[in-house]
Write a structure and sequence with these properties.
The chain is α+β, with helices and mostly antiparallel strands. It has 7 helices and 15 strands. The termini are far apart.
C-alpha cells in the first residue's frame, strides 16, 4: 500500500434488509411500553367509581320514591261524568304513599261509574295521581221496566241524568225494548239484535240531510218490524229490519217533500219505505186500503 493511501480507523457494518427496530427488539415488532398496564388500571378504577355512583343514585331515588306521598288527584276528560263521583272514590288516596297505589285496581274501581267507558291512571313523581277519563257516547233515550235510561254507542243502558239530557237535548227516543243482557260491569245492555238495529238506524239518521231533523222516535215491534215517527204526526214510517236504512231515509225525505208538504202531517196512518222506488201508504181514515205511490 502506498504512503498516500488513507485507511480509516473504523469498520463499515452492513445492515440487513429486514433491519432492527430503534429499540433494539427482534425483527418485525416492538416491545410494549411499560406504561400500558397502568392505563388499564386507571380506567378500571374510574369505571368502578362510576358504577358505584350510579348504584348510590339508584338507591337514593328508590328511598326518595318510598317517601313521596300523594298530595293531589288531577281528573281530566270529564263532561257528562260528574267530577264529584270520581273525587269521592279518590279522596281516600290523598296522603298515602305514591308507590303503594295499585293503578290497575284503581282503574277497575273507577270503571264501575256508569258513564265511564275507559280510564287511565298514572302516578307522577311530584305526588300527583293523574286520572284520564274516556266517556260513553249517548245515542238515544228509552224506558225499560219503568226506568228512564240512556243507550250509548255500544248498546249499554245507563241511568238517565239531567246532566246528560241537558247536554244532548236532541237524543232520539227508542220504544219497544224487549230484553236485555247483563254486561260485565254490572250494567244492562241491549240484546245483540236490538243493539244492531238501533245503532245502524241512528247512524243512518246522523248521516241524513233532513230526516235527522224530523224523525224523533224509533219503534221496535214484536215481529221485528221497525218504524219511525215524527213529532206531531201519527204516521208510521216503516223501515223494516233488513238494513239499507240510508236508502229508506232518503225515500222518506223525498216523500216528505213531494207528498207530506202538500197533504199535511195527519193524512197517513202508515208509509211503507221498504220497497225499491215505490212507497205504499195507508190513509188515516181508511187504514185497510193500501195505496201504491211511485217516487
Amino acid at each position: 500500500m502506498s504512503d498516500s493511501e488513507h485507511v480509516p480507523d473504523y469498520q463499515v457494518t452492513e445492515i440487513p434488509e429486514s433491519g432492527l427496530s430503534d429499540s433494539g427488539g427482534e425483527e418485525g415488532g416492538s416491545q410494549p411500553s411499560g406504561d400500558g398496564g397502568g392505563n388499564w388500571k386507571a380506567v378500571l378504577v374510574i369505571l368502578m367509581l362510576v358504577f358505584a355512583g350510579l348504584g348510590g343514585l339508584a338507591f337514593y331515588a328508590s328511598q326518595w320514591k318510598q317517601a313521596v306521598a300523594v298530595r293531589e288527584v288531577v281528573i281530566e276528560g270529564t263532561d257528562i261524568v260528574r267530577r264529584s263521583d270520581l273525587s269521592s272514590l279518590l279522596q281516600s288516596y290523598i296522603g298515602k304513599n305514591l308507590q303503594s297505589i295499585d293503578t290497575g285496581e284503581l282503574e277497575e274501581k273507577l270503571l264501575g261509574i256508569p258513564y265511564v267507558k275507559g280510564i287511565s291512571v298514572a302516578r307522577e313523581l311530584n305526588g300527583i295521581i293523574r286520572v284520564r277519563v274516556t266517556e260513553r257516547e249517548p245515542v238515544a233515550r228509552t224506558v225499560y221496566r219503568n226506568k228512564k235510561l240512556i243507550i250509548d254507542a255500544q248498546g249499554m243502558l245507563l241511568p238517565e241524568t239531567q246532566r246528560v239530557v241537558s247536554r244532548y237535548p236532541e237524543l232520539i227516543r227508542v220504544f219497544g225494548i224487549r230484553r236485555t243482557v247483563q254486561a260485565r260491569n254490572g250494567l244492562g245492555q241491549l240484546s245483540v239484535g236490538d243493539s244492531a238495529m238501533v245503532m245502524d238506524l241512528t247512524a243512518a239518521l246522523k248521516d241524513s240531510e233532513y230526516a235527522k231533523l224530523l224523525i224523533r222516535e224509533i219503534h221496535l215491534e214484536e215481529d221485528g218490524l221497525i218504524f219511525c215517527k215524527v213529532t206531531g204526526s201519527p204516521a208510521r214510517f216503516v223501515v223494516g229490519s233488513d238494513g239499507n236504512f240510508k236508502e229508506k231515509l232518503k225515500k222518506f225525505e223525498i216523500f216528505w217533500q213531494k207528498v207530506v208538504s202538500k197533504k199535511g202531517l195527519d193524512a197517513f196512518y202508515s208509509v211503507d219505505l221498504r220497497f225499491r222506488d215505490r212507497v205504499f201508504t195507508r190513509d188515516i181514515d181508511t187504514t185497510g186500503i193500501q195505496r201504491d205511490m211511485a217516487l
